Amino acid sequence: MQMTNKELAARTNQVIIGTYTRYPAAMVAGSGCRLTDAEGKEYLDFLAGIAVCGLGHCHPAVTAAICEQAGRLVHVSNLYYTEPQTELAELLTAHCFADKVFLANSGAEANEAAIKLARICSGADRYEIISLSGSFHGRTLATVAATGQAKFQKGFEPMPEGFSHAPFGDLAALESMITDQTCAILCEPLQGEGGVRPLEPSYLRGLRALCDKFDLLLIFDEIQTGMGRTGTLFAHEQMGVTPDIMTLAKALGNGLPMGALLTTNRIAAAFAPGTHASTFGGNPVAAAAAVATLKVMLAHGFLAEVREKGRYLHDQLQALAARFPELAVTARGLGLIQGLVLTEAGVQRGSAIVNRMFAKGCLINFAGGVALRFLPPLIVSSEEIDQMTALLAEVLEELAAEM
Ligand SMILES: *Cc1c(COP(=O)(O)O)cnc(C)c1O
Known about the structure:
By secondary structure, this protein is of the alpha/beta class. The chain has helices at 5-15, 48-51, 60-70, 83-94, 107-122, 141-146, 171-177, 201-214, 265-268, 284-298, 302-323, 344-348, 350-359, 382-402; strands at residues 27-31, 34-37, 42-45, 100-104, 128-132, 163-166, 182-187, 190-191, 197-198, 217-221, 245-248, 259-263, 328-334, 337-342, 362-363, 365-367, 371-374.
Protein backbone atom coordinates (compact mmCIF):
# COMPACT_ATOMS: atom_id res chain seq x y z
CA MET A 1 0.00 0.00 0.00
CA GLN A 2 1.12 3.52 -0.81
CA MET A 3 2.13 5.55 2.28
CA THR A 4 0.64 8.98 2.88
CA ASN A 5 2.57 12.14 3.70
CA LYS A 6 1.22 12.00 7.25
CA GLU A 7 2.25 8.38 7.76
CA LEU A 8 5.86 9.02 6.78
CA ALA A 9 5.96 12.19 8.89
CA ALA A 10 4.80 10.24 11.95
CA ARG A 11 7.31 7.42 11.38
CA THR A 12 10.11 9.94 10.77
CA ASN A 13 9.39 11.92 13.91
CA GLN A 14 9.64 8.69 15.95
CA VAL A 15 13.21 7.98 14.88
CA ILE A 16 14.87 11.05 13.35
CA ILE A 17 16.08 13.78 15.72
CA GLY A 18 13.99 16.88 15.17
CA THR A 19 16.59 19.37 13.96
CA TYR A 20 14.28 20.50 11.15
CA THR A 21 10.81 22.00 10.98
CA ARG A 22 9.55 20.08 7.97
CA TYR A 23 6.72 20.78 5.55
CA PRO A 24 4.10 18.02 5.50
CA ALA A 25 5.28 16.39 2.27
CA ALA A 26 7.17 13.13 1.76
CA MET A 27 8.97 13.58 -1.54
CA VAL A 28 9.20 10.42 -3.61
CA ALA A 29 10.34 11.54 -7.06
CA GLY A 30 11.82 14.46 -8.95
CA SER A 31 12.33 15.46 -12.55
CA GLY A 32 13.72 18.79 -13.76
CA CYS A 33 12.10 21.56 -11.71
CA ARG A 34 9.30 19.31 -10.41
CA LEU A 35 8.95 17.17 -7.30
CA THR A 36 6.21 14.65 -6.51
CA ASP A 37 5.08 13.72 -3.00
CA ALA A 38 3.77 10.41 -1.66
CA GLU A 39 0.19 11.33 -2.55
CA GLY A 40 0.99 12.30 -6.12
CA LYS A 41 0.91 16.07 -5.58
CA GLU A 42 3.38 17.97 -7.78
CA TYR A 43 5.52 20.87 -6.64
CA LEU A 44 7.35 23.49 -8.69
CA ASP A 45 10.75 23.57 -7.01
CA PHE A 46 12.26 27.05 -6.61
CA LEU A 47 14.60 25.87 -3.86
CA ALA A 48 16.47 23.01 -5.61
CA GLY A 49 17.48 21.38 -2.33
CA ILE A 50 18.82 24.80 -1.24
CA ALA A 51 20.94 25.50 -4.31
CA VAL A 52 22.03 21.87 -4.66
CA CYS A 53 20.27 20.52 -7.76
CA GLY A 54 21.64 23.07 -10.21
CA LEU A 55 20.73 20.84 -13.13
CA GLY A 56 17.38 19.96 -11.59
CA HIS A 57 16.21 16.60 -10.31
CA CYS A 58 17.49 13.41 -11.94
CA HIS A 59 19.32 15.12 -14.81
CA PRO A 60 19.89 12.27 -17.31
CA ALA A 61 23.62 12.95 -17.75
CA VAL A 62 24.21 12.94 -13.98
CA THR A 63 22.03 9.89 -13.32
CA ALA A 64 23.83 7.99 -16.08
CA ALA A 65 27.25 8.93 -14.64
CA ILE A 66 26.18 7.83 -11.15
CA CYS A 67 24.82 4.49 -12.39
CA GLU A 68 27.83 3.79 -14.55
CA GLN A 69 30.31 4.53 -11.75
CA ALA A 70 28.24 2.70 -9.12
CA GLY A 71 28.44 -0.43 -11.27
CA ARG A 72 32.22 -0.14 -11.55
CA LEU A 73 33.62 1.05 -8.19
CA VAL A 74 31.82 2.80 -5.32
CA HIS A 75 34.58 3.49 -2.83
CA VAL A 76 38.23 2.98 -2.08
CA SER A 77 40.39 4.82 0.39
CA ASN A 78 42.23 7.96 -0.65
CA LEU A 79 45.33 5.82 -0.08
CA TYR A 80 44.76 4.88 -3.75
CA TYR A 81 44.14 6.89 -6.91
CA THR A 82 40.72 7.03 -8.59
CA GLU A 83 40.18 8.79 -11.92
CA PRO A 84 36.80 10.55 -11.27
CA GLN A 85 38.25 12.78 -8.54
CA THR A 86 41.27 13.60 -10.68
CA GLU A 87 39.03 14.51 -13.62
CA LEU A 88 36.89 16.69 -11.36
CA ALA A 89 39.92 18.54 -10.02
CA GLU A 90 41.29 18.96 -13.55
CA LEU A 91 37.99 20.48 -14.72
CA LEU A 92 37.69 22.79 -11.71
CA THR A 93 41.27 24.07 -11.84
CA ALA A 94 41.03 24.59 -15.63
CA HIS A 95 38.18 27.04 -15.00
CA CYS A 96 39.37 29.14 -12.07
CA PHE A 97 42.41 30.67 -10.35
CA ALA A 98 43.27 27.51 -8.45
CA ASP A 99 45.97 24.92 -9.14
CA LYS A 100 44.99 22.38 -6.49
CA VAL A 101 41.86 20.90 -4.91
CA PHE A 102 41.04 19.14 -1.63
CA LEU A 103 37.82 17.12 -1.90
CA ALA A 104 35.39 16.77 1.00
CA ASN A 105 31.71 15.88 1.45
CA SER A 106 29.96 19.07 2.50
CA GLY A 107 30.23 22.80 2.75
CA ALA A 108 31.10 22.82 6.43
CA GLU A 109 33.84 20.27 5.79
CA ALA A 110 35.26 22.35 2.93
CA ASN A 111 35.25 25.46 5.16
CA GLU A 112 36.88 23.51 8.00
CA ALA A 113 39.64 22.59 5.57
CA ALA A 114 39.97 26.23 4.56
CA ILE A 115 40.25 27.35 8.20
CA LYS A 116 42.88 24.69 8.93
CA LEU A 117 44.81 25.50 5.75
CA ALA A 118 44.79 29.25 6.48
CA ARG A 119 46.14 28.57 9.98
CA ILE A 120 48.82 26.03 9.08
CA CYS A 121 50.03 28.15 6.21
CA SER A 122 50.33 31.30 8.35
CA GLY A 123 52.38 30.00 11.28
CA ALA A 124 51.57 29.26 14.92
CA ASP A 125 51.01 32.85 16.11
CA ARG A 126 48.60 33.81 13.32
CA TYR A 127 45.27 32.06 13.61
CA GLU A 128 42.50 34.64 13.70
CA ILE A 129 39.96 34.72 10.89
CA ILE A 130 37.69 37.68 10.30
CA SER A 131 34.31 36.95 8.71
CA LEU A 132 31.23 39.12 8.29
CA SER A 133 28.12 39.64 10.36
CA GLY A 134 25.14 37.99 8.71
CA SER A 135 27.35 35.31 7.14
CA PHE A 136 26.77 31.57 7.14
CA HIS A 137 29.65 29.11 6.92
CA GLY A 138 28.30 25.82 8.30
CA ARG A 139 27.29 23.91 11.44
CA THR A 140 30.49 22.35 12.75
CA LEU A 141 31.97 24.13 15.78
CA ALA A 142 34.63 26.03 13.85
CA THR A 143 32.33 26.98 10.98
CA VAL A 144 29.57 28.00 13.37
CA ALA A 145 32.16 30.18 15.15
CA ALA A 146 32.99 31.73 11.77
CA THR A 147 29.28 32.24 11.05
CA GLY A 148 28.23 35.80 11.87
CA GLN A 149 24.77 35.01 13.25
CA ALA A 150 24.43 34.50 17.01
CA LYS A 151 21.37 32.24 16.65
CA PHE A 152 23.53 29.44 15.20
CA GLN A 153 25.99 29.63 18.13
CA LYS A 154 23.52 29.87 20.99
CA GLY A 155 23.81 27.00 23.47
CA PHE A 156 26.99 25.60 21.94
CA GLU A 157 29.43 27.92 23.72
CA PRO A 158 32.31 28.16 24.33
CA MET A 159 33.05 28.82 20.67
CA PRO A 160 36.49 27.85 19.33
CA GLU A 161 38.91 30.76 19.57
CA GLY A 162 40.16 32.88 16.75
CA PHE A 163 37.04 34.15 14.99
CA SER A 164 35.67 37.67 14.84
CA HIS A 165 32.92 39.29 12.79
CA ALA A 166 33.13 42.60 10.98
CA PRO A 167 30.00 44.64 10.26
CA PHE A 168 28.51 43.93 6.82
CA GLY A 169 30.01 45.97 4.01
CA ASP A 170 32.15 48.25 6.23
CA LEU A 171 35.74 48.08 5.04
CA ALA A 172 37.19 50.56 7.55
CA ALA A 173 35.63 48.67 10.47
CA LEU A 174 37.13 45.42 9.18
CA GLU A 175 40.57 47.00 8.75
CA SER A 176 40.49 48.22 12.35
CA MET A 177 39.96 44.61 13.50
CA ILE A 178 43.10 43.25 11.81
CA THR A 179 45.78 42.31 14.37
CA ASP A 180 49.16 40.57 14.33
CA GLN A 181 47.24 37.33 14.92
CA THR A 182 44.98 37.68 11.87
CA CYS A 183 45.64 35.15 9.10
CA ALA A 184 42.61 35.37 6.81
CA ILE A 185 39.38 37.04 5.81
CA LEU A 186 36.48 34.68 5.07
CA CYS A 187 33.55 36.00 3.05
CA GLU A 188 30.63 34.94 0.84
CA PRO A 189 30.55 37.18 -2.28
CA LEU A 190 26.78 37.24 -1.74
CA GLN A 191 25.25 36.13 1.55
CA GLY A 192 22.71 33.40 0.86
CA GLU A 193 21.37 32.27 4.24
CA GLY A 194 21.81 35.85 5.48
CA GLY A 195 18.96 36.96 3.19
CA VAL A 196 20.39 37.13 -0.36
CA ARG A 197 22.60 40.11 0.48
CA PRO A 198 25.14 40.92 -2.25
CA LEU A 199 28.40 42.61 -1.32
CA GLU A 200 29.54 45.46 -3.55
CA PRO A 201 32.34 44.51 -5.98
CA SER A 202 34.22 47.57 -4.66
CA TYR A 203 33.98 46.14 -1.11
CA LEU A 204 35.28 42.74 -2.26
CA ARG A 205 38.13 44.46 -4.11
CA GLY A 206 38.81 46.36 -0.88
CA LEU A 207 39.09 43.03 0.97
CA ARG A 208 41.62 41.88 -1.63
CA ALA A 209 43.65 45.07 -1.10
CA LEU A 210 43.59 44.61 2.70
CA CYS A 211 44.72 40.99 2.34
CA ASP A 212 47.58 42.08 0.09
CA LYS A 213 48.57 44.92 2.44
CA PHE A 214 48.54 42.84 5.64
CA ASP A 215 49.64 39.52 4.09
CA LEU A 216 46.33 37.76 4.82
CA LEU A 217 44.60 35.02 2.88
CA LEU A 218 41.32 35.89 1.18
CA ILE A 219 38.89 32.98 1.44
CA PHE A 220 35.69 33.09 -0.61
CA ASP A 221 32.93 30.77 0.53
CA GLU A 222 31.21 30.08 -2.81
CA ILE A 223 29.34 27.08 -1.47
CA GLN A 224 26.00 28.65 -2.40
CA THR A 225 27.10 31.14 -5.08
CA GLY A 226 29.36 28.74 -7.00
CA MET A 227 28.60 26.31 -9.82
CA GLY A 228 26.88 28.74 -12.12
CA ARG A 229 24.28 29.97 -9.63
CA THR A 230 25.06 33.66 -10.18
CA GLY A 231 25.46 33.36 -13.96
CA THR A 232 29.21 32.82 -14.01
CA LEU A 233 30.78 29.55 -12.87
CA PHE A 234 31.94 31.36 -9.71
CA ALA A 235 30.51 34.65 -8.41
CA HIS A 236 33.92 36.25 -7.87
CA GLU A 237 34.53 36.24 -11.64
CA GLN A 238 31.96 39.07 -11.89
CA MET A 239 33.57 41.09 -9.09
CA GLY A 240 37.06 41.51 -10.51
CA VAL A 241 38.52 39.82 -7.42
CA THR A 242 40.50 36.61 -7.10
CA PRO A 243 40.59 34.86 -3.73
CA ASP A 244 43.48 32.76 -2.40
CA ILE A 245 41.16 29.96 -1.30
CA MET A 246 37.65 29.14 -2.51
CA THR A 247 35.23 26.62 -1.02
CA LEU A 248 32.46 24.85 -2.93
CA ALA A 249 29.81 22.27 -2.11
CA LYS A 250 26.00 22.40 -2.65
CA ALA A 251 25.60 22.21 -6.47
CA LEU A 252 29.00 20.61 -7.07
CA GLY A 253 27.59 17.05 -7.18
CA ASN A 254 24.04 18.04 -8.24
CA GLY A 255 22.73 16.25 -5.15
CA LEU A 256 25.46 13.79 -4.28
CA PRO A 257 27.50 14.94 -1.27
CA MET A 258 30.61 16.73 -2.51
CA GLY A 259 32.59 19.65 -1.15
CA ALA A 260 35.86 21.15 -2.31
CA LEU A 261 38.59 23.55 -1.29
CA LEU A 262 40.48 25.16 -4.16
CA THR A 263 43.73 27.09 -3.88
CA THR A 264 47.09 27.87 -5.42
CA ASN A 265 50.14 25.59 -5.48
CA ARG A 266 51.95 27.86 -3.02
CA ILE A 267 49.21 27.72 -0.36
CA ALA A 268 48.33 24.07 -0.99
CA ALA A 269 51.91 23.13 -0.14
CA ALA A 270 51.13 23.72 3.56
CA PHE A 271 48.95 20.58 3.51
CA ALA A 272 51.43 17.70 3.52
CA PRO A 273 50.64 13.97 3.83
CA GLY A 274 48.98 13.40 7.22
CA THR A 275 48.01 17.02 7.92
CA HIS A 276 44.41 16.73 6.73
CA ALA A 277 42.16 13.97 5.39
CA SER A 278 38.63 12.78 4.70
CA THR A 279 37.54 9.14 4.41
CA PHE A 280 34.76 9.79 1.91
CA GLY A 281 36.17 12.96 0.31
CA GLY A 282 36.36 12.60 -3.46
CA ASN A 283 34.32 9.40 -3.44
CA PRO A 284 34.24 8.05 -7.04
CA VAL A 285 30.44 8.04 -7.40
CA ALA A 286 30.04 11.59 -6.06
CA ALA A 287 33.01 12.71 -8.17
CA ALA A 288 31.52 11.11 -11.31
CA ALA A 289 28.28 13.01 -10.62
CA ALA A 290 30.23 16.24 -10.19
CA VAL A 291 32.20 15.70 -13.42
CA ALA A 292 28.97 15.12 -15.36
CA THR A 293 27.39 18.19 -13.75
CA LEU A 294 30.33 20.44 -14.53
CA LYS A 295 30.46 19.28 -18.17
CA VAL A 296 26.83 20.31 -18.67
CA MET A 297 27.41 23.69 -17.02
CA LEU A 298 30.53 24.36 -19.09
CA ALA A 299 28.78 23.65 -22.39
CA HIS A 300 28.48 26.66 -24.68
CA GLY A 301 25.62 29.00 -23.82
CA PHE A 302 24.59 27.41 -20.49
CA LEU A 303 25.81 30.21 -18.22
CA ALA A 304 24.60 32.94 -20.60
CA GLU A 305 21.13 31.43 -20.25
CA VAL A 306 21.42 31.47 -16.47
CA ARG A 307 22.21 35.21 -16.64
CA GLU A 308 19.27 35.83 -18.97
CA LYS A 309 16.79 33.85 -16.87
CA GLY A 310 18.18 35.48 -13.72
CA ARG A 311 17.45 38.93 -15.16
CA TYR A 312 13.95 37.77 -16.09
CA LEU A 313 13.26 36.38 -12.59
CA HIS A 314 14.67 39.58 -11.06
CA ASP A 315 12.39 41.76 -13.22
CA GLN A 316 9.33 39.66 -12.37
CA LEU A 317 10.11 39.95 -8.64
CA GLN A 318 10.78 43.68 -8.95
CA ALA A 319 7.35 44.06 -10.57
CA LEU A 320 5.79 42.24 -7.59
CA ALA A 321 7.61 44.58 -5.19
CA ALA A 322 6.12 47.54 -7.07
CA ARG A 323 2.66 45.96 -7.03
CA PHE A 324 2.66 45.05 -3.32
CA PRO A 325 4.59 47.88 -1.58
CA GLU A 326 2.93 47.04 1.75
CA LEU A 327 4.66 43.62 1.72
CA ALA A 328 7.77 43.86 -0.44
CA VAL A 329 10.55 46.43 -0.82
CA THR A 330 12.75 45.29 -3.68
CA ALA A 331 14.26 42.34 -5.52
CA ARG A 332 17.99 41.68 -5.21
CA GLY A 333 20.42 38.99 -6.22
CA LEU A 334 22.67 37.76 -9.00
CA GLY A 335 21.70 35.31 -11.72
CA LEU A 336 19.40 32.63 -10.31
CA ILE A 337 19.91 33.41 -6.65
CA GLN A 338 17.28 36.08 -6.12
CA GLY A 339 15.62 37.51 -3.05
CA LEU A 340 12.46 39.53 -2.54
CA VAL A 341 13.18 41.81 0.41
CA LEU A 342 10.09 42.18 2.59
CA THR A 343 8.77 45.16 4.52
CA GLU A 344 8.32 44.83 8.28
CA ALA A 345 4.71 43.73 7.68
CA GLY A 346 6.00 41.32 5.03
CA VAL A 347 8.65 39.86 7.36
CA GLN A 348 5.93 39.10 9.93
CA ARG A 349 4.18 37.16 7.17
CA GLY A 350 7.35 35.63 5.68
CA SER A 351 6.63 32.11 6.90
CA ALA A 352 2.95 32.45 5.95
CA ILE A 353 3.94 33.38 2.40
CA VAL A 354 6.17 30.29 2.14
CA ASN A 355 3.45 28.07 3.63
CA ARG A 356 0.81 29.36 1.25
CA MET A 357 3.17 28.87 -1.70
CA PHE A 358 3.72 25.31 -0.49
CA ALA A 359 -0.04 24.73 -0.31
CA LYS A 360 -0.28 25.96 -3.92
CA GLY A 361 2.46 23.51 -4.93
CA CYS A 362 5.49 25.79 -5.12
CA LEU A 363 8.63 25.56 -2.99
CA ILE A 364 10.49 28.72 -1.95
CA ASN A 365 11.98 29.76 1.39
CA PHE A 366 12.44 32.71 3.72
CA ALA A 367 16.07 33.59 4.40
CA GLY A 368 17.73 35.54 7.18
CA GLY A 369 14.38 36.85 8.44
CA VAL A 370 14.48 39.48 5.70
CA ALA A 371 13.86 38.11 2.21
CA LEU A 372 12.02 35.41 0.31
CA ARG A 373 14.71 33.37 -1.44
CA PHE A 374 14.41 31.89 -4.92
CA LEU A 375 16.91 29.22 -5.98
CA PRO A 376 15.40 27.37 -8.94
CA PRO A 377 17.38 24.74 -10.81
CA LEU A 378 19.53 26.57 -13.37
CA ILE A 379 17.61 24.74 -16.11
CA VAL A 380 14.37 26.51 -15.12
CA SER A 381 12.31 27.76 -18.09
CA SER A 382 10.78 31.23 -18.41
CA GLU A 383 7.34 29.52 -18.35
CA GLU A 384 8.21 28.04 -14.95
CA ILE A 385 9.37 31.46 -13.73
CA ASP A 386 5.99 32.84 -14.89
CA GLN A 387 4.16 30.03 -13.05
CA MET A 388 6.01 30.75 -9.82
CA THR A 389 5.50 34.51 -10.00
CA ALA A 390 1.78 34.06 -10.79
CA LEU A 391 1.38 31.91 -7.66
CA LEU A 392 3.38 34.40 -5.60
CA ALA A 393 1.19 37.25 -6.87
CA GLU A 394 -1.90 35.29 -5.73
CA VAL A 395 -0.42 34.78 -2.25
CA LEU A 396 0.68 38.41 -1.87
CA GLU A 397 -2.73 39.55 -3.07
CA GLU A 398 -4.48 37.34 -0.48
CA LEU A 399 -2.25 38.58 2.32
CA ALA A 400 -2.52 42.23 1.28
CA ALA A 401 -6.31 41.89 1.26
CA GLU A 402 -6.20 40.48 4.82
CA MET A 403 -4.12 43.39 6.15
C1 LIG B 1 25.12 25.71 2.86
C2 LIG B 1 26.30 26.54 3.14
C3 LIG B 1 27.35 26.09 3.95
C4 LIG B 1 27.31 24.77 4.67
O1 LIG B 1 27.24 23.68 3.80
P1 LIG B 1 26.85 22.23 4.38
O2 LIG B 1 27.00 21.33 3.18
O3 LIG B 1 25.45 22.31 4.87
O4 LIG B 1 27.81 21.91 5.46
C5 LIG B 1 28.44 26.92 4.12
N1 LIG B 1 28.51 28.11 3.52
C6 LIG B 1 27.53 28.58 2.73
C7 LIG B 1 27.67 29.91 2.08
C8 LIG B 1 26.38 27.82 2.51
O5 LIG B 1 25.39 28.30 1.77
